[in-house]
Each structure stands twice: as structure tokens, then as C-alpha cells.
Amino acid sequence: MSDDQQSQQVSKAGSTVLLATSARIISQLTSLTILIVAGRFLNPELFGVFVLATILMNISAAVQYSGIYNYILREGGLRDHIRTAFTLHVLVGASFILGIVTLSASVYLSGGSALLALLILSTAPIPFGFIFTSWFEALLLRNGDVKFYYWLLLGTDLLGFVTTIVLLFMGFQIWALIFARYAAVSLIVLVLLLKVRRVPVPGFRTKQARKISAYSIPLYGEKLLSIFTGYGAEIAMGAVLNSRAVGLFRMGMRTSTAAFDVFSQTARVLIWQMVGQLARQDRIHEPIWIKIFALLFAVVATVLGLLIIVAQPFVLIVLGEEWIQIAPIIQIVCCVKIFSVFSLVANAQLAAAGATKLVLKVRFFEALTLAASLSFLVFYGPLGAAAALFRPVLVGSAMLYQRLSAITETHARKLFVEILPSIIISALSILSGTLAYQLSLGQPLWVQVLLPSLVGGLTFLGVSFVVFRAWFTDTIQTLSEALHVTDGDPSDMSLPK
User: Residues 6 or more apart from 346 whose CB is under 8 A from it?
Assistant: First the structure.
């Protein structure tokens, strides 16, 4: 490859990453703004009702972006069995629609809250939209059309943001959050249909269905168990405590994960695109994942570490004293998310290598560990539920590393040497932010948030681009080359007529 071609390749990949990160930042900022405004209009108890009502809908979204979605990204020759894959994909979505209707009826007939039952029922049609959004998104990413995907994501997020804010100020309260989801999903389905211009045609062949199911079912199971680690606390608190406890926990959880999701959601899409391409080229055993993990850890640990420092003044500014109890929840969940960076990278690498049963096994043990922790800690309220999230992450990471190190022949010493610069970068950034926070005590709340954030961020940039410039440049160069996607065969991507 010539120097010009290499430069163009890196530039193209770099612009894609920049667009992806920018879209995710805007997405999370709009999501966080919606959360903050909703917190001003809804009290913790009413917000908790909304959380409980939308759990199954959110599970549907997560599951439909797994399994067959990942199969489409990974499989080399897709055209011959694309109809069978779509049929199975529709069946998965339909099962969630039926589940939501059944749950709503069960809540109502058992004498539960009529508002809760009605809210659950109102989310039933949304998984139908997820069937198409997840399917077409997988096709776009498989063909390397990442920029269009992120522009679309940005547009739907902005539409959902405007819709929610307007409806909240119009007095729709909790229903504003539901109607905004309808608006966003409807837009993305319409645009994707216009982009692809062909509605998928269902079909079914038993042999193909067995092959697709053999790969997808473990990933669906892994996703469901992963969701339990995310929603298990809310489910447990809803069962033994009350909706106020659920509202406080979810607000703290969502606030802390907003910063994490800016990078994790971007990384998840790019990692799957990368490992999918490596798998199709029989290069999945290359230890590129170490550089992905090192770079992602440096960024996430710094951002979440700074959020831990400024959690209390941040909550007071954006939500008010009514929500001050979520500050320690934010701090605990930020620590958990820092430790979960490894599993984010390892899951994709192992799944692309065909170790889907191991990924499912890991999720099972994580869910089991969480259930055991919650059985003791949930009675201590939202703070105890947050603390229960630690053990599953540590157990899962240990299991994933054992297998991943064997597949890619990566020993602990090599891993430590590679990520040591990222540890130093994040540690120095957090230390400088802590010192700045101590100096800002007694100042207005906005100063207590802004000063540590600026000092920590500048420290991160200085250490990364000056002290560890060679390491940082080499890491970006390697990942940029791996992210380069050649144009696929359009005939392989098109849907049968």
C-alpha cells in the first residue's frame, strides 16, 4: 500500500470515528438533557413508574440488536439465506410484542397500578419498529455505510429530544417520554426503508434456520443475561421496595452511564464492525483488542473519574435537592462502568471468534452473582443495589480474560505493559481534577463542576499528546488501519426481489 493510500485510509477511518463520537456525544447530551428536564417535571416515584413500564420495551430493543443482527455482520455469504434470517428476526420481535401485552394484562388483572398497566401496553407497538431498524442497520454497517448510519442516528435523537421537551412543557408529563420514542422510531424506520428501497421478503429453510439459530441463540441468551445485570436491580426494588426507590436508582444509573455510553456505544459499533471484518478475513486471532481496550480505558476512566469527583455539585445544579440521594449512586456506578470496559471489548472479540457459548456462560455466572448480591443488598435501598453491581463485573471479566488470552496468545505481562500508559494517563488526569475540586470548595456550584473538569481534561490531553505521544499515535494508527472497510459486493448486500 502506498503512503498516499495509507494516508487516505487513516483519514477516512479517522473521520468516521470522529463522526461516530460526535453523534454519540450529541445523543447522550440530548438524552441527559431529557433526563434532567424530566426530573424537574416528574418526582422520583412517578419516574420510577415510567422505568418499570418500559423495562420490557428496552429489553426488546437490546435483544433485537443482538443475535441475528451480529450474524449479519459476521457471515461471509449472506444472500443465500437472508430470507430465513429475516423471518427468524421477525419472530423474535413478535415475541416481545406478545410479552408486553401479556405483562400489561397481568398487572391490571392482579390489581396493580392502572397507570403502570396502561403505560406498559402503550409500548407494545414499538418493538415492531425495532425489527426493521435493527435489520437495516446491520445491513448498512456490513456494507461499511457507517456515516449514513450516524447521521440518521443524530437526526432521530434530535427529533426525540425536541418532541420530549415540547410535550413536557405542554403538560404531558410521563406520556411525553412515550410519545417521543414513537416519533424517533417511526422516523428511523421511514428513512431506512427509503435508503434500502426494498422491504425484506420472509422465507424459511430448516437447514439455514438451524445454522442461524446455532449462532444467534447463545448471543440472545447472553444479551438477556446482560440485561438482567442492568435491570435486575430495578426489578428487585420494584418487587420488594417501591417505585420511588426504582426512580432514584434509575436516575443515578442513567446519569452516570450517559458519559460512559458516549464512548461505549460508539466503541461497540466500531468494534463489531472491526472484528466482523477480521473474522471474514480469518484474522480474528490477532490481538488488536488490546489496543482498543487500552485507548477506551484511558478515555472512560478519565471521564467517569472526573464525574465521581463532581457528582454532588452536579446533581444539585441539574436536578435539585430532591434528587441529592443519587450522588453516591452515581459514584458507585461510575466505578462499576470503568471495570466493565474490558468485557465490552472481550465480548465482541470472542463472539466473532465463534465462542458464543462461552459468552453466554459468562453472562449466566454474572447474572447468578448479581442475584446473590441483590438478595442481601437490595434491602439497603438504591445504594445497596448499586453496590451489588460490582461482583458480576469482576467475575465476568476474569472468565472472559482467561479464554481471550488463550485465543489471541496474550499473556498478563504483555497486557499490563500495553495498558500501563492508559492507566498513568487516567490516574494523572483524575489526580489533577481532585486537586482542582479541593481548591474550588466554597465557590459557586458551577465552579466546583467546571474547574475540575477543565483541569482534568487538559491534563489528559497534555499527558496523551506530549508524554505518551508515541504510544498514543501508534494506537490510533493501528486502529485506523483495522477500521478501514473496503466496499462490499452490492449483490451480496441486496435483498432478494
Answer: 289, 293, 397, 400, 401, 404
